[in-house]
């Protein structure tokens, strides 16, 4: 079992991984498009904060990749979009925040379009994560949720996306029993970190059609600042 990895922002990600992992990728969480009029059916007053549950997202939601949002709101890079998101939730120090980017992003928002999940892995990604964890013959996954001091083992084929999401609302790491792969959510980040024992991360990402930023030896956990 692998404990959650607390990454610092002073050292490249690849230099902080356990020895068996050789490559890493940042998986941006998709934005959530719900059916037209969905929010109106939920709203009870003008000030109510509404965000769909994981179950509602799986049943009715459509994932919107960062590439499409970048195009739609006139931004240019994944880094700009990450800064816009983190500025909007006040997750950056003042010297790094960019209200201009946040305004560009938010000006394109319409009812029934929602931010990605910021703390926990998007429910949209879990199905692919389970496929990858079992792709080399593993039957079980290990999980560690450090905030709740909780850990355990689950059968991969018997686990559902909702069950995995229910393990933790914030930091969580999932690994297969052979330690070939790991997936780790990062608080206030809108991303999940994907780790692999092999060095062919590009092949895995392309095979699964995942939107990803491949980490090199200069990629930090605060990758959007570099």
UniProtKB/TrEMBL annotation:
Cited InterPro entries: DUF2711
Cross-referenced Pfam families: DUF2711
Protein's UniProt name: DUF2711 domain-containing protein
